[in-house]
Amino acid sequence: MTDDSLKAEALSWAALAALAPAAAERVEGPTNAQASLRLFGHSEADVQVTLFRDHHAWCPYCQKVWLWLELRRVPYRIRKVTMRCYGPKEPWFTALVPSGMLPALELNGRLITESDRILEALERTFGPVGAGMHDRRVRRLRELERLLFRAWCVWLCTPGLREDQERRARDQFQRVASQMEEAIAAGGGSWLDPDHPSGATPGTADLVFIPYVERMNASLAYKAAKGSSSKIIGLFITSTRASAARLCCPPDSSPGLRPSNPSRPTRARAAVTCACSSALKCKVGRTPRPTFCAKVR
Fold first, then answer.
1. Range of the domain at 226
2. Are residues 118 and 159 in the same domain?
């Protein structure tokens, strides 16, 4: 395709602007990465929460809190902060959070950092999404997620592994990933949430996994494209995509998820799918960063 033909097919800025959603739709419509305010039918005076998250919808720790707020339908404001891999932090944010750590959340004037602490505080104020963070069954699933996360980082984010080290790391990742598959299957439904695995919405246990499984799937595809153990990785991608699909956007035939109008997704499915899709746009094709994997928030 020539440069002239590309220019002829490209939309002008004015044409693109005409396709943008109205500001009100960003506030009350489907989940989107551009919103700075989400109300869910409430008035702005009802907002008790401000979420500080990254500009590019890349941060999985931010996405975990973002999904929780959307599914619990808690009205909130959004302030966006630069991730260090894209540039320096804004001075106004480091004045609030000297470490620059994301996400951060202000709840009724109280500033909270670390995604798990944030979810615990939100649960105390607004109630849990499914089984809560401190439910012993959810704690076990959270531990499994950390094992899966670490196995992924060791395999895909550690530079300079020898062939035998990479093989052991790959095998360990596959073993832990199989445990995640078994946990989904054990509930007999679409979700990991132990209270309602076939319910209309995912639970906190699912929201803990979704951002990381998404990123694992994208990075495995990238690794396969680079030609590293492509046959083994290809088999795992097939399995992981199925798991990610079940967690992120279960089929409409799942109990409790069939929309009244088949052409329109349920609110729960739309919230998860839109947040996942917004984050995924910034991830495909990116090389995993070792420093990212070293920080557990």
1. 136-294
2. no
Backbone angles phi, psi at 101, to 5 degrees: -65, 140
DSSP category for residue 46: G
The residue ranges of DSSP E strands in 11-114, in sequence order, are 37-38, 49-54, 76-81, 104-107, 110-113
> Residue 173 in 3-state DSSP?
helix
Question: Given its phi and psi angles, is residue 188 left (phi above 0), alpha (psi -120 to 50 degrees) or beta?
Answer: left
- pLDDT tens, position by position, 98-156: 999 999 999 999 999 999 999 999 999 999 999 999 999 999 999 999 999 999 999 88
Q: What CATH number has the domain bearing residue 251? A: 1.20.1050
**pLDDT single digits (tens) 219-251:** 887 766 555 544 444 444 444 444 444 444 433
- Residues 6+ positions from 224 with CB-CB distance below 8 Å: 230, 233, 234, 237
Q: What are phi and psi of 81, to 5 degrees?
A: -130, 145
